[in-house]
Design a protein that fits this description.
- The chain is an alpha/beta fold and about 450 residues long.
- It is built from 16 helices and 13 strands.
- Helix 8 packs across helix 13 and helix 14 runs parallel beside helix 16.
- It is globular and about 70 Å long.
- It binds pyridoxal-5'-phosphate (PLP).
């Protein structure tokens, strides 16, 4: 068995040396594969990839953007369409698909937990910790962002006079778990700001009081693309002894992340991280783990030697206490490959590239008469999201035109019913792709 609380990750680490041996799959299984462009790295019957020899070869952003064959090989979506929808749900890079395929193939001939190489979970938590600037013991792998945020809302103890401060126009995943606290008598306050998504430290400072227990914000607004100053807001809240919970899905993998002044951070893998759906990270600061009670229970997060239920509930001394049962190993294998790819490329480098692309898009959109949300945002508040509109223009029609021409963008609507188009290119999109998309508008 793979995870028996109390020794699982340590045992896995000790067994790491066995890892290579477990990475082999009978050729017979590989030969059933029909895909011609997604061969698994471990498959003995290899299908050659044009212009691409070593699947684990380190990549650089410059290489990807200067070698079209390599770009299309590593990011197969680029051979099919212009994909500008990473703020919605990303397509998977080849390396991620390979990692998941390898694991899935291994699972065809063994117990799935045995097929998961020893030590991999430890390494995955280490990668996640690097990405977050946290400790591996502070990372739980629980899946969707909504679930992790709900664990925070449900697991803290509130008094009836307490309030929490949230932003009503955030993505619903970071609104509803807090609204549900009203049933417990907690006052749910909505942050009051003038422009969509534009939350500054001063807004938070002015809207908390001595009864505020927690502030929950998104690191970047999903619609307007405004990126908040997480360290500054977090530092202020820590001084006031107010907990800070961050929905980080719109920045993790795209911009450097530091959870130094954050208590809880949740981000699924299916956007900027370039990983699969429902394979997200949940960070809980070590010092607050005793305050955040697990609200789900099972064999994995409660001590049960030999699967025998004990007299008392005893949780692991780290963030595994929030992982109740079997892990989503297939998704986590993809998450691991995605994190390796991004960390190899360098998050600072990716961030700079995303801001550069934004500066390509904005003047091009403005020259066609569009208004871009937060177009003058300083770099520290700008993100990979470029959202625009033109009064009197049917944005849904423009969206259809893009779709018909193989350009993936997002059509979004605000509370007033106003429609917008949102472009969210990632590092592997080219300037030529961006220009082509704008030309179609
Ligand atoms: C800010 C934000 N939070 C959360 C989510 C999705 O949450 P989940 O991972 O639960 O699907 C999205 C998806 O669009 C989002 O933009």
């Amino acid at each position: 068995m793979l995870f028996e609380f109390g020794f699982s990750d340590r045992k896995l680490l000790q067994a790491r040396s066995k890892r290579q041996a477990s990475h082999s799959v009978p050729a017979a299984i590989c030969s059933h594969r029909s895909s011609t462009y997604l061969p698994p790295a471990i498959c003995r019957v290899r299908i050659p990839r044009p212009g691409y020899t070593n699947p684990m070869q380190p990549l650089s952003l410059e290489q990807i953007l200067s070698d079209e064959q390599l770009r299309k090989s590593e990011f197969p979506v680029a051979a099919e369409k212009i994909f500008l929808g990473h703020a919605a749900v990303c397509p998977l890079p080849r390396r991620v698909v390979d990692a998941m395929t390898d694991f899935a193939l291994s699972c065809a001939v063994k117990d799935q937990e045995d097929a998961y190489a020893p030590g991999r979970m430890v390494e995955t938590r280490q990668l996640a910790a690097r990405l977050l600037g946290a400790q591996p013991t502070e990372v739980a792998l629980v899946g969707p962002t909504s679930l992790a945020l709900s664990y925070v809302a449900a697991g803290l103890t509130f008094r009836r006079s307490d309030n929490v401060l949230v932003y009503h126009d955030d993505y619903p995943s970071n609104v509803y778990p807090w609204m549900a606290l009203a049933q417990k008598g907690v006052q749910v306050r909505f942050l009051n700001i003038r422009e969509l998504g534009r939350i500054r430290k001063i807004d938070v400072e002015g809207q908390v009081d001595e009864s505020t227990r927690l502030v929950a914000l998104a690191s970047c607004h999903f619609l307007s693309g405004w990126r908040i100053d997480v360290p500054a807001i977090g530092e202020f809240l820590r001084q006031r002894d107010i907990l800070f919970c961050v929905d980080g899905i719109q920045t993790l993998g795209a911009f450097p992340t530091s959870v130094e002044h954050v208590d809880f951070f949740a981000a699924d893998a299916h956007k900027w991280l370039l990983g699969p759906l429902a394979a997200g990270l949940f960070y809980v600061r070590q010092d607050v783990q005793d305050r955040l009670q697990p609200t789900v229970f099972g064999w994995h997060n409660v001590r049960c030697p030999n699967y025998v239920a004990q007299e008392n509930i005893v949780h692991p001394p780290d963030a595994r206490r929030y992982e109740a049962g079997s892990a989503n190993l297939l998704g986590i294998a993809g998450l691991e490959a995605a994190m390796r790819l991004l960390l190899d490329l360098g998050i600072e480098r990716i961030a700079a590239e995303l801001l550069r692309k934004r500066n390509v898009l904005i003047p091009a959109l403005k020259s066609k008469g569009f208004t871009v949300l937060h177009e003058s945002a300083p770099p520290e508040h700008a993100s990979g999201i470029v959202t625009f509109l033109k009064p009197g223009t049917d944005m849904a029609q423009l969206h259809s035109r893009l779709t018909e021409n193989n350009v993936v963008a997002s059509l979004r609507t605000d509370r007033t019913g106003q429609r917008y188009l949102r472009f969210s290119p990632h590092f592997y999109n080219t300037d030529a792709e961006l220009r082509h998309a704008v030309d179609l508008l």
